[in-house]
Each structure stands twice: as C-alpha cells, then as structure tokens.
Amino acid sequence: MSKKPKEPETNQEEIVTQIESPEENTVETSKKPEDSPKKSPIKLITIIVFLISLLFFTWYILSERHTPYTDQARIKGLITPIVPRVSGNVTEINTGLHKLIQKGDTLFQLDKTPFLIAIAKAEANIENTTQSVSASGSTVKSAKGKLGVAQAQLERAERNWKRVEKVMKENSGALSANDVDQAETSYLQAIEQVASAEANLERSRQSLGDSGPDNPKIRAARNDLEQAKLNLEFATIVAPTNGVIESFNIDLGYYAATGQPLATLISSSDIWIQADMKENNLSLIEVGDSVKFTFDIAPGKIFEGKIRSMGFGVSADETNKGGLPTISSKSGWLRDPQRFPIIIDVKSAHEISKLLRLGGQVDVVVYTGDHTLLNALANFRISLNSWLSYVR
Description:
The protein is of the alpha+beta class. It has helices at 12-20, 22-30, 42-66, 113-170, 177-208, 216-234, 372-388; strands spanning 69-82, 88-93, 100-101, 106-110, 236-238, 243-246, 255-256, 263-278, 290-295, 303-310, 339-346, 361-367. The protein folds into 3 domains: 63-78 and 268-313 and 336-391, Beta Barrel (Elongation Factor Tu (Ef-tu), domain 3), CATH 2.40.30; 80-112 and 234-256, CATH 2.40.50.100; 115-231, Methane Monooxygenase Hydroxylase, Chain G, domain 1, CATH 1.20.58. Helices cover 43% and strands 21% of the residues. Helix 4 packs antiparallel against helix 5 and helix 4 (113-170) packs antiparallel against helix 6 (216-234).
C-alpha cells in the first residue's frame, strides 16, 4: 500500500488565536505611524516680545517730542513776608495760622504810644521853627536898619571929605594936618561900616531864607511831622494782597523789629505750575500749547492749562567771574538729561484754589499739535497716572 503524503503541521494555538480575535489583527494592520513632534513656541513668543518692544520704543521716541510727559513739576506761587516797617510791641493779633485773608485786613497792631508822642513832638517843633523864623526876620530888619545908619554916616563923611579936599586945593595952609587926617579917617571908617552892615544883612538873610511857608526850616519840621504820622500808620500792619497766612508763631507782647518777618503770606493773586522738562522735550514745545496735568491731592481728576513761558537758561556750574570753568565728568556711559523749566497757567485757578498747595507735586503732559494717535495715548497715560495717585 502506498503511503499518503504528510500535510504540514499547523500550530493549533495560532489558528485558535486568529479565529478567536480577528478584530485585533484588523486593528494592528490599520494603525498609523507615530505623529511628528510639535514645534516649540519660544520663537513665536520672542518675535511677539520684540515687536511689542519695538512698538513701545517707537511710541516713546515720538511721544518725547510730540506729547512730552514729566512728573518733575511743582505748584508755584508768590510769597510775601509780613514785615513791619517800624519797631514796637505787638498789642493786637487779628489773624492766625492758615487763615484766609483779604487785601487791607488788619493783621497786627503795634503799640501806638511812641508814635503819638513823636507826632506831638513834631508839631511842637513846627511851632518852635516858626517862631525862630519870625525872630530871624526881625534880625534881618535890624540888619537893614544898621545898614541904613551906616550909609547915612558914609554920605556925611563923604561930603565932609570932599569939602576938605576943596579947601586944600584952594588954600593948602588953611587946614591943619590933624584936621585933614581926621576927616579922611572918618570917611574910611564910614566905608568899612557900610561894608560890615551889608555883610551882616546878607548873613541874616541867608540864615532866614524864605520868610514864608517855603522856608527850609519850616519845610523840614513839616516833613518830620509827616514822617511821624506815617510811622503811626505803619504801626497798623495790613495784608498787602489776598492769600493765606503761613509760618505764624508769635503772641501778644512780641517785639516786632523793623525788617524782621512776623509771618508769611501766600498770595492767591498768581499761581502757576513749573514743570522741569528734559532738553529734548523742548524741540516742538511753544508758548500757548495745551497742557493736561493731575494733582496727587485730587486722584482721578484731570485739569487743563496752557504754557505761559519757557526757561532759556539754568545754572550748569559754579564759575567765578574771571576764573576758569569747572568741567564735571560723568562716570556712567549715559549722561543725565538737562532739564529746563516751563511755566504753565492753570485754567479755572479760582475754582480749584482749594486744591492748589505751593510745592505740591504735579504730573504734566504737553500737547504740541493735533496728533490723533499720540494725543490719545497721552490722554490714556495721564488718566492712568491720575488714578495711580490713590496708591502713591
């Protein structure tokens, strides 16, 4: 009998596995290759940061010229020391620290007694001077009378001398030498007496001057009286202008010396803002440009004004006249920018006078023209700073 060929052996376990899990084979054959790794975002972030930095740098450069900003600004005003023009003890005080005053209000009263005495003395001096001038007038009249007598005696002596000369010509031996000498001496003495009387009269006139109200002595006495009355008025110290009293610390009985301040008056007649701008901010700024600013005392509020004037120079070093200039060197690689003051008028200063405190800090932005985008950014900046005043 012929043998049948052997069939290849089949792994029964593999067959069973294929039969039992046909879906697994399908899944394995349908699998996709692994995805490629994701790109890193660092490069994109770097580009975005660079663009934002470039944008801010461009805005900074343009805003420094077209809408310059500074936080180095202060409220400025006029300060008047209350200084007495005469000396005396304070007898009345009609003001106090931080008190609002009006022009002409009486602030202090000094003791009037010494000034009233000075007035009475000046009046008495006028009377004495008037009497003295009258007496000098009598002296002049007396000098005139003596001059008239001397002139009469001179005329008589002159006539007598002429007769002696005539006799001497006609008959030289008619008169003795003694008679001739006596006549000549009388004539010469009469001439000297007239000259002396004239000098006395001139001296009396010079001493008297004008005999009326324009007499120098009377005018001087009247001036003394006016000065005494003026000193009495100066004893009442009044406010020279509207404002607020500051630096006040005296009491009754204080001796007020001439020229020594008793208090300080902050005048409300003129208040402005001084903003110290960097030198490169000034290239486009002009007088009359609009300004917006904020006060730390009024967070969230924005005020407006205009540029009144601009500074043309600041002290850069201390140089004596005739000496050599001193050059200061900077150790850093960036030098500090030089700043110049600009003066800003405050709109509606009367309405916001309660907010204005001399020396108060101010944030300022200047608008040099109609630059829509830059002006809008400047408005946002000053608005943000106004609200940041709450946390300063």
